[in-house]
C-alpha cells in the first residue's frame, strides 16, 4: 500500500481476494470477476482504476457520496458475463485510491484536493504506460486534472466533456469545479469542448471563460428542441479535431437524469444516450487517451444498483 504526501490518501492494488468479495459464481456461466482479476496490468490495454473520495465535491460546496461509486461499479461489473463477444482478455483492474482521512471542512478539502492531484499523477506514472487506456471511476471531477496532466506528458490532448456544468470556475483554490479552467490556463490541453450545458447552472464568469478560450460548447436546451443530438455533436467534434492528437473523454454522471450524483437533476441525458456515445467510442479507441466517469454518488442499496449497472454498461460498451 502506498500513501500520499500528507497521508490523507492511500493506493492499494486490486487482488483476487477482493474480486471474490464481489463476484458471485454461477454454474454454467463465466463472469468477469473470474477472469479479469487474473489479467496482468502490464499486458492489458484497458486499465480500471477506482477513486474513493468526495473531497473535490465538498471543496466545491457540494456533497459527499462520490466515494461510493467504485464499489458500486465493481459489485455489478464483476458479475457481468464473459462470452465470445466479451472475452475480458484486454482488461485489468489496477486498484483503488482512497481518501483515508475525509476532510471536515471546505478549507481542509481544498488542501486535500491538491494533495490528491499529485498522488493520482504519481500512481498513473508508476503503474501505467502511455499505450494503455485508463478507465477511471468514482470520486469528483477534480480528478480530471491529474488525468489530463498524465496524458499530456507524451501526447497533445483535446478534451471532450459531457457535463451540465463547464467546471471552469476561477482557479484561486482547487476543487471539482475548476479542473478544465486550470488545464486551459496551464496549457495542459490544446482544446476543451463541453456538451450539454444546463443554461441555468453556469454563471457569467464561466460563459465568458468559454468564449475567451474558444471552447466548443452546446446546451442541453438545444437538444430538447431537436436542433441536434448528443451523439451527432460528439461525432462532429471528434471529426473536427486533429486526428493525430489524443482525446481525453470525460463523462460526468451529473449529466444523466435522475442519476444519483453530487448534483442530481431530473433533467438530463438518458443512460441509453450515454451508452450510444460509449459504443461510438469503441470505434475510436486508438484516439482515446483515457475515459473518466466521475461524480456518481450512491448512498442507498437502490442507488448503488443504478450507478453500478449504468457504469458497467458504459465500460463494456466502450471496451466492446
C-alpha Rg, in Å? 18 Å
- Architecture (CATH level 2) name: 3-Layer(aba) Sandwich
Main sheet: strand order: 1-2-4-3-5-10-9-6-7-8
Percentage of residues assigned to helices? 25-40%
Characterize the overall form.
globular
- Stretches where pLDDT is under 50 for at least 5 consecutive residues are none
> What is the overall number of helices?
12
Top CATH class: Alpha Beta
The structural class is alpha/beta
What is the domain tally?
Answer: 1
Helix and strand string, N-terminal first?
A: EEHHEHHEHEHEHEHEHHEHEH
Number of strands: 10
Biggest beta sheet summary: 10 strands, mixed
Q: Give me the CATH superfamily.
A: Ureohydrolase domain
SS strand fraction: 15-25%
Ends distance: 32 Å
Q: Write down the overall mean pLDDT.
A: 97
CATH T-level topology: Arginase, Chain A
